[in-house]
Design a protein that fits this description.
Layout (H helix, E strand, L loop, with lengths): L24 H11 L4 E5 L2 E5 L4 E7 L2 E6 L2 E5 L3 H8 L3 E5 L2 E4 L3 E6 L5 E5 L4 E4 L4 H7 L2
Antiparallel strand pairs: 1-2, 1-5, 3-4, 3-7, 4-5, 6-7, 8-9, 9-10
Length: 142
């Protein structure tokens, strides 16, 4: 494999072009790696792990710490919530000032009699939505 870099002052965005004789498993792996967002460093009692954005179910703050919940457990993150919201992009929706949830993990919104909005997640988790973010959630699913 050969790697080249070309500088173009007129370029408005980064363009990566892969040229190969045919689509081999090696080419497929390279394309998948280029297309996926970078892993996020996370920490637990055993040390550092890398979380792929696709395996994170939700990101929230608790006791001034930012935590990520995934199928592998709960991990501490060293980034701020607004930075993670930008980095994770449209796959996540903000449901309160202190929480982001992966869109494809949302199962149901239950509107309670007392005005609370409970959000049920695939896999059995539950969390609560701030009323001020309901419009954003609806817009995210239009």
């Amino acid at each position: 494999m050969r790697v080249e870099f070309r500088s173009d002052p007129r370029a408005e965005e980064i363009l990566v072009r892969v040229t190969a004789r045919e689509r081999t498993p090696e080419v497929e792996a390279l394309l998948a790696r280029l297309a996926s967002p970078p892993a996020i460093p996370a920490y637990d009692a055993r040390g550092e792990v890398l979380l792929a954005p696709g395996e994170i179910a939700r990101v929230y703050t608790e006791r001034r710490r930012v935590l990520a919940e995934s199928d592998r457990g709960t991990f501490a993150l060293r980034a701020r919530l607004y930075e993670l919201e930008e980095r994770l992009g449209g796959d996540f929706v903000r449901i309160s000032n202190s929480e982001l949830v992966r869109r494809d993990r949302i199962l149901r919104l239950d509107f309670g009699v007392t005005g609370t909005i409970r959000l049920s997640l695939r896999g059995g988790g539950e969390t609560y939505v701030s009323r001020r973010y309901v419009a954003r959630i609806r817009k995210a699913f239009e």
